[in-house]
């Protein structure tokens, strides 16, 4: 029988890093405070003591340096797992991400590949200081050459992280920090992967398909349960990977219901919801029975925390969006 | 002042408050005022940490131990000079006129915390490390291009010297000879990463050499030394007659007594012995000891200062906590000079739902 541990999402990520460090000597973890300190969210706790400072590396405070040196390591065949402490601090490394991490394979016609996984906590709802709560996954989904993975359960976090680290291509692995410690799940101790690029159906329903990911999965399911009591059955699909998108799963859920709502905490304009809406009209126009709804963050800078509850899609806003699609 | 070796640290008072250098020309009342502000900053800091512990404030970055560098440097600024802070300069900003209430509101998650009175020349808090350094160069450059004679002090930490923005900002300052003083609060630790792991350079001050500007190291636990160095650097920044470069990089060697922020536990990565060693260099004790020896301070005056400091912080906390949760309209209010129609629509849709469902449907807790 497989041994399991009852872990939170952040503990499952730590366990995933531990497993991959143990399985493959080419894996290194690097970033600010990931070593001796064990990560500001404890995502690398104990790894420095077990694997040493050459494999769990405290770097200078320089995001471009962290991403850029990881690119160099990966080009030489290592599997670096750089951490940016908060996704809001990725921008000094943005040039390295879009100009190199995303393009090295293409530019070298496949000679150099970058099997690296850039981890960062993202998203709001934890009363954090300025620049610690943004949800900018669309930047990375927009960049060809990158895969963008966002787990929402402990079991899948470990499996998706392993799949990302083993993937021949660079992965941006965004961790919804609001649910880092929100709940626990049995997580196998042994190595396993959860495939990149596949969505998961969290709830079955015939009336409307609701697409979401990350921390928004929970309020979306909450809204779906509330509406279920009123006889409105939502099919809730957790995308898990936002690039490449699981078009098949998205289209299938929509064809089943003819109505759709997309929920994300990122701003509306240029967000993933627009992309999903476009896919549905490209592939399933004749199934459409109502305008496709978008329940998202507003198109404003993420506020300081006194206002963040208003900014984030709440179950109330999600319910309202679903009702609009259902009652059209 | 600027011709010394980079590791020839400028000092005025030693750890016991004995005079070991040139005492700056400050009258007794200014010295007492400096001391008062250091006590105010220390007391504010303790109260802020406890507010966070009680759930009355969000994550907060403490400054205890760094009052000598913050208050000493800020005292050297003229009212018209500008301060470009990072996120830990509550003490420096206070000296330059930023009300304590503003600092409290910012860390309590209110946008208004960044809305300084218009006559206070302090930039908004900059959280992304080193990102404010090019701003300070640009702002000083604007002043120079317009023929004004304001100077600019930019604060950042030892970790910031690893970022690209540090190098780019200071390089521009060198090339365009801007009136900027780059003030590095080297508190030895960037969260858990020690200063030695940021750079192999023996000092941070010597980084000035590469950009052709002046660099000087000062004892950051010595407020009088910090004042003297900053004063000289500001003077040089304003005065185009000198043949020296206007910009200066000051490395103020100091220590953060507490955590990086209230979310951090420094016992994981540094020894108590080290903390205790630095606490013996406490900038407040040092100045107090000097002022008592000079006969400027006595028990009575110190007691009076303590009580006014406590009252002032208590008043500021009352004032900040009496602010109501901002209206959600504030989310949209300052995104643009004029709200685009789509944003107006997003707000109205939300406001209608809020009217229908009530506030509680949107608030966690």
TrEMBL record, chain A:
A single GO BP: organic acid metabolic process
Q: What is the lineage of its organism?
A: Archaea, Methanobacteriati, Methanobacteriota, Stenosarchaea group, Halobacteria
What SUPFAM superfamilies does the database record attribute to this sequence? Thiamin diphosphate-binding fold (THDP-binding), TK C-terminal domain-like
* Record-linked PANTHER family: PYRUVATE DEHYDROGENASE E1 COMPONENT BETA SUBUNIT, PYRUVATE DEHYDROGENASE E1 COMPONENT SUBUNIT BETA
Q: Which GO terms describe its molecular function?
A: oxidoreductase activity
A Pfam family this chain is assigned to: Transketolase_C
Keyword annotations for this protein, in alphabetical order, are: Oxidoreductase, Thiamine pyrophosphate
Q: Which InterPro entries match?
A: THDP-binding (IPR029061), Transketo_C/PFOR_II (IPR009014), Transketolase-like_Pyr-bd (IPR005475), Transketolase_C (IPR033248)
Cofactors needed by this protein, per the record, are:
thiamine diphosphate
All copies of domain Transketolase-like pyrimidine-binding, residue ranges? 7-182
Q: What is this protein called?
A: Alpha-ketoacid dehydrogenase subunit beta
| Taxonomic source organism | Halorubrum ezzemoulense DSM 17463
* Ranges in coiled-coil conformation: none
């Amino acid at each position: 029988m497989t041994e399991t541990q009852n872990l939170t999402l952040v503990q499952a990520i730590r366990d995933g890093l531990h497993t991959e460090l143990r399985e493959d000597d080419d894996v290194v973890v690097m970033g600010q405070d990931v070593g001796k300190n064990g990560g500001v969210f404890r995502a690398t706790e104990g790894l420095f003591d077990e694997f040493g400072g050459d494999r769990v590396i405290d770097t200078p405070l320089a995001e471009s340096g962290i991403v850029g040196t990881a690119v160099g390591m990966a080009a030489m065949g290592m599997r670096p797992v750089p951490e940016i402490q908060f996704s809001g601090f990725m921008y000094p490394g943005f040039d390295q991400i879009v100009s190199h991490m995303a393009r090295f394979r293409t530019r070298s016609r496949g000679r150099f590949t970058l099997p690296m996984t850039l981890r960062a906590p993202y998203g709001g709802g934890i009363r954090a200081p300025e620049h610690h709560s943004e949800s900018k996954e669309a930047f990375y989904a927009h960049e060809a050459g990158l895969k963008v993975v966002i787990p929402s359960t402990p079991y899948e976090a470990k499996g998706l992280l392993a799949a990302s680290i083993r993937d021949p291509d660079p992965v941006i692995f965004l961790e919804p920090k609001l649910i880092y410690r929100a709940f626990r799940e049995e997580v196998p101790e042994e190595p396993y992967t959860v495939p990149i690029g596949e969505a998961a159906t969290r709830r079955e329903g015939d009336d409307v398909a609701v697409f979401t990911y990350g921390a928004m999965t929970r309020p979306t399911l909450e809204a779906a349960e509330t509406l279920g009591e009123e006889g409105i059955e939502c099919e809730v699909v957790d995308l898990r990977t936002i690039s490449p998108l699981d078009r098949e799963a998205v289209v299938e859920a929509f064809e089943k219901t003819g109505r759709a709502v997309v929920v994300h905490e990122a701003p509306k304009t240029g967000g993933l919801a627009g992309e999903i809406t476009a896919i549905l009209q490209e592939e399933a126009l004749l199934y459409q029975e109502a305008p496709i709804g978008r329940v998202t963050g507003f198109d404003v800078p993420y506020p300081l925390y006194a206002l963040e509850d208003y900014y984030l899609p709440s179950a109330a806003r999600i319910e309202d969006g679903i009702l609009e699609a259902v009652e059209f | 002042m600027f011709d010394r070796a980079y590791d020839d640290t400028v000092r005025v008072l030693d750890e016991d408050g004995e005079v070991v250098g040139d005492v700056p020309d400050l009258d007794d009342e200014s010295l007492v005022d400096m001391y008062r502000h250091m006590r105010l900053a220390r007391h504010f800091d303790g109260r802020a940490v406890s507010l966070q512990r009680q759930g009355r404030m969000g994550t907060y970055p403490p400054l205890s131990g760094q009052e000598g560098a913050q208050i000493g440097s800020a005292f050297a600024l003229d009212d018209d000079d500008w301060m470009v802070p990072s996120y830990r300069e509550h003490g420096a900003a206070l000296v330059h006129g930023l009300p304590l209430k503003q600092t409290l509101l910012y860390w309590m998650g209110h946008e208004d915390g960044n809305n300084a009175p218009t006559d206070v020349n302090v930039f908004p808090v900059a959280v992304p490390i080193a990102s404010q350094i090019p701003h300070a160069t640009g702002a000083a450059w604007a002043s120079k291009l317009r023929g004004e004679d304001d100077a600019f002090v930019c604060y950042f930490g030892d970790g910031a010297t690893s970022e690209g923005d540090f190098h780019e900002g200071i390089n521009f300052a060198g090339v365009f000879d801007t009136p900027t003083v780059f003030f590095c609060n080297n508190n030895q630790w960037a969260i858990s990463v020690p200063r030695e792991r940021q750079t192999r350079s023996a000092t941070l001050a010597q980084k000035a050499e590469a950009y052709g500007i002046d660099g000087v190291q000062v004892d950051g636990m010595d407020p009088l030394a910090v004042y003297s160095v900053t004063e000289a650097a500001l003077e040089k920044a304003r005065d185009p007659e000198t043949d020296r470069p206007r910009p200066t990089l000051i490395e103020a060697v100091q220590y953060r007594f507490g955590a990086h922020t209230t979310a951090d536990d420094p016992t994981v990565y540094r020894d108590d012995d080290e903390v205790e060693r630095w606490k013996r260099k406490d900038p407040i004790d040092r100045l107090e000891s000097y002022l008592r020896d000079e006969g400027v301070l006595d028990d009575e005056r110190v007691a009076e200062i303590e009580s006014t400091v406590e009252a002032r912080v208590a008043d500021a906390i009352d004032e900040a906590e009496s602010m109501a949760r901002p209206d959600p309209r504030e989310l949209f209010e300052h995104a643009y000079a004029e709200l685009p129609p789509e944003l107006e629509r997003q707000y109205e849709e939300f406001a209608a739902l809020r009217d229908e469902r009530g506030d509680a449907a949107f608030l966690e807790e």
